[in-house]
Amino acid sequence: MTTSARQRVAAFWDAHIESWLNGEDPLPPPLPEWFGSLAGVGPGQVTRDGFPEPYHGDLLGLEQTPRMVVLGLNPGEYRQRFQSREGIFASEIREAGSYSRWATTCPYNRPPWTLPHKMGRNRYYQARLEFTRRWLQDSSADHRDLLIFECYPWHSKAITAPLKPPSEVIDEYVWQPIAELPVRDVFAFGRPWDDLAQALRLPKTGRLGSGGRAYGSKVASRAVRTYELPSGQRLVVEWHAGSAGPPSAKETALLRDALVAGNGVRTVPSPRAEASTDPVDASISARHPSL
Question: What pLDDT score was predicted for residue 95?
Answer without folding.
Answer: 98
